[in-house]
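Sharing a chain and its predicted structure for anyone who wants a worked example. Both blocks are below, sequence first, tokens second.
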Amino acid sequence: MRSCHPTQRVAMVLAAAVVGLVIHGSAKAQFFGGPSGPQGPAREVAPIDLTGQWVSIVTEDWRFRMVTPPKNDFPGLPLSAAARTVADGWDPAGDEAEGNECKSYGAAAIMRVPGRLRISWAGDTTLEIETDAGRQTRRLHFDGVPEPAGEPTWQGVSESEWIMHSGGFGRPPVNGTLQVVTTGMRAGYLRKNGVPYSENAHLTEYLELLTHPDGTEWLVVLSILDDPEYFTTRVITSSNFRRQTDRSGWDPQPCRAR
């Protein structure tokens, strides 16, 4: 097995711990272990600072993320019979002809696409995540007011809240995690080679910030996708990003079907 950089190892260990807790129970109750975040405008009470530019560090599923996998190549995914039928019929040329090049850049997949993120506040209650891959923009809403019902979109509707970590032994909460729940997504691809998720998919994400002893900051995104139409069990992945000290390397590219 190839060794990895110590910083990458820290991110992977944290992600593995979170995954284990999700499998054995409620991540929010067991890992984050505390009450919802403090009251007030989300921007003012944010327990961690996610703003800035981040670059993805691919530490798992390299051959499914860095290149487009071949047709019918989807090991490790709990696909239903319906999903296999859709994936077996993957036709990138057809997607291009229909203007659906962004099928693999929707909310359920975009954090797995290699590239850079720019995170910033768009007001006191909305956090924006821009991606240079596919030129997508996610809007994470904290105000608790649902958006008017409309047609599904690639990025869907994301409701967010701060979850405070327990200080333990009667101490006050310390630090925190961002929980994001996304619904209303347009049907898309979880992997670029046609592995589908449906419009009824439910995505829950936990964004965790950690600092390596050398001062490097890492963003770990745990994603939990529930979609009984296309998956026999929930799909859990973790994606790692390293904070950049500048805004170099930003290279917006359009969606590509292959």
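Comments welcome. The chain has six helices and eleven strands.
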